Amino acid sequence: MEFSAQSIADLLKGTVEGNPDIKVNNVSKIEEGKPGTLSFLANPKYTNFIYTTNSSIVLVNKDFKAEKEIKATLIRVENAYESFANLLEFYNSQRHHKSGIEQPSYIDETAKYGDHIYIGAFTYIGKHVKIGNNVKIHPQVFIGDNVTIKDNVTIFPGVKIYYDSIIGNYCTIHAGSIIGADGFGFAPTDTKDYKKIPQIGNVILEDYVELGANMCIDRATMGSTIIRKGVKLDNLIQIGHNVEIGENTVMAAQGGIAGSTKIGKNCMFGGQIAIANHITVADGVKAAARSGIAGSIKTEDAIVMGAPAFDIRQFQKSHIVFTKLPEMRKQLIEMEKEIAELKKKLDS
């Protein structure tokens, strides 16, 4: 797709300074600019690159003042960084804009779907499924019986959504993720083996949830596993049965939350976080990467680190001591030798 400077300016409500007809078909960093690409200047540290960049178009703030001649066409906007983000969002929506039902695909006769829908090839849609308007379902997606998918949802290739799941408005589910597989429920028996506990609940994603690639959310044993409005979960995350994650909480890749744990809203978790089962985490809690949360955190806005996780300031103090342990051990050994020598002298 190609866009002219004038069409971009119209979209961003900006003004063109230079050639309004010049076109771009990609983006680039201002310091690595190439002809036919668009860049932006928001950080003053990069100002010197605007005079040497080979980008065809550069977004700048309205108050930017050039000190030398600039080869590129400028588009002046209120906020170059925000406008660049809006432009990327528009470009991405256009790139993924598809419509119609590709073949081969299977849609049960009892399923219902809205307007402006896209269903990719090799997709399976089961009985009594309800799909809203402007939903994009990419190839090789499985949607089980009685699933509800509301409006403006995007589901990328290879996603599996088990029966009875509910997907809210404006959700995005990236490739390979599995929604609604059985929770890890097994009861030990007298013969020391394990009997499977049927998982008869479901999964609910509220509005504006985004799930990364190859992550899993288990269905509840009873009731629902609930991902609240605005939650963002990265790739390769495991969410156990009956977990509830509060609004606008974010979690980086490779983390796991064990069953029946309740996470508050506006929490932030780094990569490879492990959170134990049947605990609660208060609103606004932040946990550094690779932390292990083994017990409930009741203090809102707490910041924790370590495994097991505790207050980050205490962890940092402890880490200073930890790094000095080899030196302290050496000193201890020397003290033991000195004490032994003193005992010999006293004995003699």
What do these coordinates show?
With 348 residues, the chain is α/β, with parallel strands linked by helices. The protein folds into three domains: 3-95, Udp-n-acetylmuramoylalanyl-d-glutamate--2,6- Diaminopimelate Ligase, Chain: A, domain 1, CATH 3.40.1390.10; 159-308, UDP N-Acetylglucosamine Acyltransferase, domain 1 (3 Solenoid); 314-347. It contains four helices and 40 strands. A twelve-stranded mixed sheet has the order 8-11-14-17-20-25-28-31-34-37-39-40. The longest helix has 23 residues, at 325-347. The mean pLDDT is 95.
Parts with pLDDT < 50 across at least 5 consecutive residues = none
Q: Provide the spatial order of strands within the biggest beta sheet.
A: 8-11-14-17-20-25-28-31-34-37-39-40
Specify Rg, calculated over alpha carbons.
28 Å
Question: Helical percent range?
Answer: 10-25%
Q: Which structural class is indicated by helix and strand composition?
A: alpha/beta
Shape: flat
Let me know the largest β-sheet.
12 strands, mixed
Oligomer: single chain
CA-CA gap between termini: 94 Å
CATH architecture assignment name of the largest domain: 3 Solenoid
Beta strand count: 40
CATH topology-level name of the largest domain: UDP N-Acetylglucosamine Acyltransferase, domain 1
CATH superfamily of the largest domain: Hexapeptide repeat proteins
Strand percentage, roughly? 25-35%
- SS element count, helices: 4
The CATH class of the largest domain turns out to be Mainly Beta
Mean of residue pLDDT values = 95
Number of structural units classed as domains: 3
